[in-house]
Amino acid sequence: MKPHKIITSATRSISLTGHTCELSCMHCGGKFLKGMIPIEKVDPCALKRAGIKTLLISGGMNAKTYNVPVYEHLQCLKTLKDHGFKLNFHTGLLDICNSKFDEFMALADRISFDLNFSKDVLQKVYGMNKVTEKKVKHVFEAIYQKGGDKLVPHICAGLDFGKISSEYRVLDYLSSFNKISKIVFIVFVRKKGTEMENSPLPAIDELKKLFDCAVKQYMPNVKIILGCMRSFRGEYAKNLEQIAAESGIYGIVNPRYNVTAEKEISDVCCAF
Considering the entire predicted model, what is its pTM? Predict the structure, then answer.
């Protein structure tokens, strides 16, 4: 059976920090923010007329707290929610002790949480000095306790300078969270002008083993999805979609090659 086709035509990405990021991770350098709409320029009515249904709320990370400033924009975000948009948040290490934490959790429809336990990724690639696996788990588990059914773990394969390192440990860790219904794999992308623009991409055969493991361990109860952050051009991109399909994953976001079912099952962000 071919994977489902997930098209994100009815989704837009919003940045709470415009095109700036204090943290400036090695793999991104704030460059991915340039494809997002700054929160100050969002026109809800125009988005509704364009058929937009869901919004990814993200932005640059604070260099000291390692999170996106969602609490400072709650009123504006409530306005977007009142216009009928479903909100998916990419927050970083959310401040779970903030007095507005419960308010935020009530507002969020989904929370896309990046899980990586590699010390080199956390402290070198992300630049989150002294952040450990224990800290990442602490934040993840606090969010899960408040709204486990809203959490959509994301695993970025190969972010450890092209190596598969902590990805299998993340899969094992997630097995104890029975409210998780989806796991999204994204794959390291070389972005021109960043510190990692010349780093190797993860090997296709290693990705195949990782996808095989995830499908065997979790499906059909948990949907395994190949997400939108990955290479889309060239032989590597074609091979990536092919091996994902061969592994038997549930769905592929915005497929470019003929490896999915013909009819799309969704036109919004795969977190929904």
Answer: 0.97
